[in-house]
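# step 3/5: fold
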Amino acid sequence: MKKLLVIAPLLVLLAFAPTTNTADEEVKYKCLIQLSNYGGLGAYVIVSLTHPETGYHQTLSVSGDEPEWYDDLPEWFAYHEESGESIDGISGASIVSGGRKIVQFGIPQDLINSGYQLRFETAVEDNPYYPTDVEVALTDSLAGKNLEGNGYIRYVKLIGQ
């Protein structure tokens, strides 16, 4: 019984720890995005890697699959248009008010703890745009924490795979 009491908390910690795939040196994450209840249509949510000095680095996820609305996210859209970045992280439709969605992405190991940030940008048609609904330093201690939003996002939670 004493062994079980010692092992159980360790298993919980391991479940929330990010895992590294050494073949491509990426840390794989699942990310739960929980929206608040607001009036309006579904929210487009962009998850990006940014750096305070150099700006956008990479788009990790796009929730919203109709490109004609991407210009409702003007900061990300300007980067996207200028960079010509191919988006392979489109994860379907926008997220409805009060809804939740799980997206998956990988982050190069060498970018963690090196000044990069995770940025969650949100927009809803005919409503305000939140370029930094959630923005947080990319560290190896993010997994398992609820990160509160200041716009349409109630919170996000990163879970290591």
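# step 4/5: annotate
The helical segments are 2-16, 74-83.
# step 5/5: archive (pending)
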